[in-house]
Amino acid sequence: MSGDAKLLIESHTKWLLEEVPALKPLKLVVGIDLIGRGDLQQFRLVLPDVTVTRDIGTEARIRVEMRREFFNLMVEHGAKSADWREALHDGKLKVTGVQQYIRLIAQVIDKQEERDRLKRQTSRRHAQPPPSS
Q1: Rounded distance between C-alpha atoms, residue 44 and residue 49, angstroms
Q2: What element of type H or E holds 15?
Q3: Domains of the chain, CATH where assigned
Q4: How many CB atoms lie within 10 A of CB 46?
Q5: Is the peptide bond before 130 cis (omega within 30 degrees of 0)?
Q6: Stated pTM of the model
Q7: What is the pLDDT of residues 45-78, one digit of tens each?
Q8: Which of 10, 44, 66, 104 could connect to 57 by a Cys-Cys bridge, CB 3.0–4.6 Å?
Q9: Are 98 and 62 in contact (CB under 8 A)?
């Protein structure tokens, strides 16, 4: 699934915003650098309307850098916010820029993941049959 990077960025960003709805109102410009074999593709992602253009994104507050093959793989497998966090931790994804924005996004994602964990635990408890006497 090596499709058009612009469309992949747009569709996956919308999907991630559905996963973490608290990020939807965030007004932010993100620069995305996809590094290929001897090639660098640069994109500008504008939130909240999720507009992607092929541009350097000089006014970007956050810049995301990764290998194009890695990006394709993550999108193909429907990577969730936790997968992107793991990629960041493993060094497959590099995020630079205004630290306040980066911390804010991380906190919002942490809270959403905690809510999802609690929902799963609650639904499991209610799904189990009551103990028989």
Answers
A1: 12
A2: helix 5-19
A3: 5-124 (3.30.1050.10)
A4: 17
A5: no
A6: 0.84
A7: 999 999 999 999 899 999 999 999 999 999 999 9
A8: 44
A9: yes
